Amino acid sequence: MLENFWKDKYPAGVDSEINPDQYPNILAVLKESCQRFADKPAFTNLGKTITYGEMYTLSGHFAAYLQKHSGLQPGDRIAVQMPNVLQYPVVVFGAMRAGYVVVNTNPLYTQREMEHQFNDSGAKALVCLANMAHLAEQVVPKTGVKQVIVTEVGDMLPPLKRFLVNTVVKHVKKMVPSYSIPGMVRFNDAMAKGRALSFTEATPGSEDLAVLQYTGGTTGVAKGAMLTHRNLVANMLQAKALMGSNMVDGEEVIICPLPLYHIYAFTFHCMAMMLSGNHNILITNPRDLDAFVKELSQHRFTGFVGLNTLFAGLCNNAAFRALDFTGFKITLSGGMALQMATAERWKEVTGSPVCEGFGMTETSPVATVNPISDIRLGTIGIPVPSTLCKVIDEDGNELPLGERGELCVKGPQIMKGYWQRQEATDEILDAEGWLMTGDIAIIQEDGYLRIVDRKKDMILVSGFNVYPNELEDVMAAIPGVAQCAAIGVPDEKSGEAIKVFLVKSAGTNLSEAQVKEHMRSNLTAYKVPKFVEFRDSLPTTNVGKILRRELRDEELKKLAG
Fold this sequence. Notes:
Layout: H1 26-36, E1 41-45, E2 48-51, H2 52-69, E3 77-81, H3 87-97, E4 101-104, H4 111-121, E5 125-129, H5 133-139, E6 147-151, H6 159-172, E7 185-186, H7 187-195, E8 209-214, E9 224-228, H8 229-242, E10 253-256, H9 263-275, E11 279-282, H10 289-296, E12 303-306, H11 308-315, H12 318-321, E13 330-333, H13 340-350, E14 354-359, E15 366-369, E16 382-383, E17 388-392, E18 404-410, E19 417-418, H14 422-428, E20 435-443, E21 449-454, E22 459-461, E23 464-466, H15 468-476, E24 481-491, E25 495-504, H16 512-522, E26 531-535, H17 548-560
């Protein structure tokens, strides 16, 4: 067992352990930080900044409204469905302070997905953006949601700007389809009511649920991971120890394009950066690269949290490349595999190395990360403090260093289990607290881990294992490739054959023969794709992760048809 293996692998000044019980719950962190950094900026969005002190006051108003007017009981679930706007931290922390469990909901969900999540979680209330309210109108009657609070994008801006922004979003850009929800309350009305009320601050226990975080659903039906106060506090302390070791409390400006309803952004921006009193710049729509870069030009940012797709897109943007990157210290990558070519290009453009980590919703989410002082590209770093990792074979036996097997993780950030799904919990969590990640990894002699692939995405060509990540890494290095994915398709001769999909950058001429030639010169013969398809776009999750499974299902349909 690798019990003491990592003790000496941490950089100087980073402890190998954290105390997960340093704070009894998230609210204790919130209170301490909002007092300590009361005058420091916490969040900025659409040109408006709120300080930590203001965030505490505002979340208190929202908590008071919920306690007095929503009819919710302590421990009830409240669904929050918003992109990155200032209302998000106010609502989430307000809901927790009032004693409720937050159900983070993706604003891009379809009716079917919303209905499943609201019913599965038993949500009693919903706070959503007006842009999604027409879907809520259809879904809410089919669920247990009793109270709907609707907010508009500009609701927390000064009056004139609020009017302008909300008018443009609604009437010019036509982004708010008409809706009518009986009994709904507007966010600003709820806040005005709450302002005049007092409330009883909740004191949840460390093992109480804080957030129900639904897993991507890329593998069948979405399940709610039960994340406790202790899970999130532990992960916050772990992330701060390794990722934030070179950050100065109260001085950093961090760009936040990943959605806060995604657990990685939530733990990092709403928790770890709160603990250290740093300033988060919320990007509402990172897909609009021109507006995004314009926003970036207004800040002297020191940190950036993103993922591969975003790094690649920004590096191809001339206005981004012209920005001032002096003072820029840290780039964090999560959510999907970082491609070598992208990481090198990002460092070349910005001067900042990319520190890649690994995590899952079920690990709150950070399990391993590259220490900023010793980044080893191509690895997912070392386990965060107080975390153990091992790799196992098909029969569950632990494998020695350097062997590939399924990665298992154990630590205080591991979820309590899946909400009301004992069977699914038992499949992934064993009696000793080890979580099976479903990822195939190698633990290197130096303590760093490498993911070689998802258990489920592996391609088997004539008995040889081929890992899509490796193929995509090689493809990504071809000039003119914007996105790529590799899957296995049934093949009479070899069992499975490799098919790759590529999206070309604008103005690029790239042929099938060139792709195969490049692959041939970089990979063993059995890893060279048999089929190459060029597309205008690839299916992705809302955080930009390419859905290989969707591509595979399409191919299987074609064959069956």
